[in-house]
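Example 560, ligand 1-deoxynojirimycin.
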Amino acid sequence: MWWKNSIIYEIFPRSFKDSNGDGIGDIQGIISKLDYLKDLGVDAIWLCPVYPSPNNDSGYDVSDYYDIWDELGTMEDIEKLIVEMHKRDMKLIMELVANHTSDEHEWFIESRKSKDNPYRDYYIWRPGKDGKEPNNWLSAKLGGSVWTYDDNTDEYYLHLYSSKQPDLNWENLKVRQEVYNIMRFWFDKGVDGFRMDVINKIAKAPGLPDVERKEGDKRKYLPCEEYYENYPKVHDYLKEMNREVLSKYENKLAMGQTSGVTPEQAYLYTGEDRGELNLFLQFEHIDIDRGSNNKKLPFNALEFKKSLAKWQTAMDGKLWNTLFFGSHDTSRPVSHYGNDKKYRVESAKMLATILFTLKGTPIIYQGEEIGMTNVRFESIEDYRDIRTHNVYRERYLEGGEKLEDVMQDIWELSRDNARTPMQWDDSENAGFTKGKPWIKPNPNYKEINVQKSLDDSNSILHYYKEIIKLRKSNEVLLYGDFRLIFEDDPNIFAYFRELNKKKVLVITNFSDKDIEINLSREIRKIDNFKLLISNYEVNEANIESIKLKPFEARVYEFGV
Ligand code: NOJ
């Protein structure tokens, strides 16, 4: 199970590295940076969708699962990527977007033609009810109804995401077999695993019932997650997928995106005796300050650490977690949880300290290793993300909220924060492209870029390399149990990891203030200890009482 001691690096290909000057990152660009990633300590790349797509949702609307999007490269390029990665002992994880396709996929083009088309039942079609949508479900991420009317056959089709992403009908065995064939095709090409997009949403409640309306609730459409998220039937499908495909191959990873899971549900997906998936992605810590319709709520560091700690203890012995603070769907962690101005370097290193010392498989999102920050485009025209434009339309243009408030939330939460071009050097367009980039780079690329980070021994990048090496060489960090200390302290996130009488202590200051803490209750005087890594110079010989600087992080080993 190589994924347990691997470091995964997520690549959003359009924004990573452009090799041919068309302004769009591509597979050849990724190949040219493999040595950089290997040197960082990366073992596996999770590659966001590279299949042909009308680009309604950055490739999460696939129109052909057996080909490569010409903007990103060719089939030869991906084959070369696989060879080059395997040469370097790295693994490739591709995306399986199987809850929905693009409406321009040939299955859907056929499906919408007539009620008796052989592909009709590949999707979820229903007649309207009293001249309205078949039910009152709300599209959780995009707002509005989950149904779109198609006058060709006078019926509606269901889409949990945009109307250009119709949901597949997993009740149809033929659909499931199509998905299994896609998996076999890529496994046979040498791909080492899949990240399965919203895989916990493939099973919908039979009959697609209306959500019951509470008295006085005037909303037209209502939140309805319980009817499609982690719906029990999903486990039958995943068991079948495992039997039909995964179990027939060796060493292939199935990493499911499973929002809204409890630890018990995560176990149902990934418990070793369950025969379903291997890893899950859960979002509890990411969602704590995201309200409905992308409203930014105040960040509460105590809640954040309690959530992380909860998952650490819930996992003990039973589950294997993934660890991440950022992705192509979030803002930049250093801006969100740290301080991207005065303490950018310190707070990015503090976050890295947590990421690489908790139990689970760490995932770095591109650019995090150099402390890339959120961007602030003044005009909505400069944003590319469909979700950002929806927020703008629904809350400002249609909803009448104040423009400043809506823009403030967009600056803090837009997915484009993570999608500005990777900052390679201080040349024009951050060294990302020689052409016109599809999305503007963050203007701070002259200061924050890979080249500068490589040249500076005190950079975030060097800290990443060092702590990754430390994690890989330290069994306690990999497999040790987790024990939270200073549980109710809102500023300190500190914990022990313990394995076979060996202990590692991680102490981080999650605030921009100096804080003094007393550890005498936690450590015995006779304990031998050694500092393994820290993001400030540490001079104290005694660690019973220590003064932590803003965003300071230290890792000690005991019993040496
Ligand atoms: C989850 C992906 O991470 C996100 O980027 C995408 O918009 C939705 N799934 C729909 O595929």
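Summary: Residues 173-188 form the longest helix (16 residues).
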